[in-house]
Write a structure and sequence with these properties.
Helices cover about 35% and strands about 15% of the residues. The protein folds into 2 domains: about 180 residues, Isopropylmalate Dehydrogenase, CATH 3.40.718.10; about 140 residues, Isopropylmalate Dehydrogenase. By secondary structure, it is of the alpha/beta class.
Length: about 325
């Protein structure tokens, strides 16, 4: 069985420790390997250095397989070192090479710290998602946050709120819906996805009293796509579309901006939410949290989201 490759993420964050704890939880069921500098793993982590991904499955049951990637400096919990920025970026690119060559089944990425990458390597991308899309050849992607209770996609991601109305166009929303639909079919096995679409404005504009985007083009776009075979609802007021009864009516929701999407899923299932990138030519998941420098190295980080991210990657790869 081809392994799920776990990228190390920011060495000063909680990535290495939650990877080690996730391996301890899942080792007997899911082959995996960690890609990074062995010096950055928590002291005492049972691990075994391997030379190729093909060795991971036979090692994973007894130790965390480590495909080594040398970094410039040791890791100091809670304090990112700019010298390690290049290594973090190289590991992501190497993981993509492994999955695209067929040596690994999927990628599960540990959190990175964008400021540390910018300071240490002039990282040119807003985040993981955009960098992965570039490595895949510039494909269009969307970021889905998924748990047992909710799947939600933000149409715009890492931009200032003031920029959302300009960035949110009919073409962007259509492409987001198309990619989400395809991902639900191919990666989640939902033959005819039901997708709920939020409004941009409070109360979905309330008939134009609080904004006109819904009337001007969001509702017409939804109506048009429903004639093309989609099953879409909306635009819906964002403040009433995420309670339990509402969630039963759709398989995924599309929100208009970052916090409109992430607040509900982090409220519903903070520890188990998974970041899934749809639209890539390979499977990528990630825990739905950051580097957590304040607790790094203290042994208290909750690995639940990493565990769920690995499980989801494995399910998608073996479906």
């Amino acid at each position: 069985m081809k392994p799920v490759v776990l990228t190390c993420g920011e060495p000063a964050g909680i990535g290495p420790e939650i990877a080690a704890r996730a391996w301890a939880t899942l080792a007997a069921r899911i082959p995996m390997m960690w890609l990074g500098d062995p010096r950055h793993l928590p002291a005492g982590t049972p691990h075994e250095v391997i030379s190729a991904a093909s060795e991971a499955a036979k090692v994973s049951g007894r130790a965390l397989p480590v495909l080594p990637h040398a970094f410039a400096a040791p890791g100091t919990a809670g304090t990112p070192d700019p010298a390690n920025a290049i290594g973090v970026i190289e590991v992501i690119a190497r993981a993509v090479d492994l999955v695209q060559s067929g040596e690994a089944s999927a990628i599960c990425t540990a959190p990175i710290h964008k400021k540390a990458l910018k300071d240490g390597a002039d990282f040119a991308y807003p985040g993981h998602t955009e960098y992965l899309a570039a490595l895949a050849g510039g494909c269009d992607v969307v970021m889905m946050l998924a748990s047992e209770q909710l799947r939600v996609v933000p149409a715009t991601i890492h931009i200032a709120l003031s920029e959302v109305p300009k960035a949110l166009t009919p073409a962007l929303l259509r492409r987001t819906i198309e990619i989400t639909q395809t991902g639900l079919i191919r990666q989640f096995g939902i033959a005819q996805p039901r997708i709920a679409i939020s409004g941009l404005n409070p109360h979905a504009g309330e008939g134009g009293a609080m904004g006109h985007e819904e009337l001007d083009w969001i509702a017409p776009l939804i109506a048009q796509m429903n004639t093309e075979g989609y099953t879409l609802r909306g635009p819906l007021p964002a403040d009433t579309m995420f309670h339990a009864a509402a969630r039963e009516g759709y398989d995924a929701a599309i929100a208009m901006y970052h916090d409109q999407a992430l607040i509900p899923i982090k409220t519903l299932d903070f520890d188990r939410g998974v970041n899934v990138t749809l639209g890539l030519p390979f499977i990528r998941t990630s825990p739905d949290h950051g580097t957590a420098f304040d607790i790094a190295g203290k042994g208290v980080a909750n690995p639940s989201s990493m565990v769920e991210a690995i499980r989801m990657a494995h399910r998608m790869a073996t479906a």
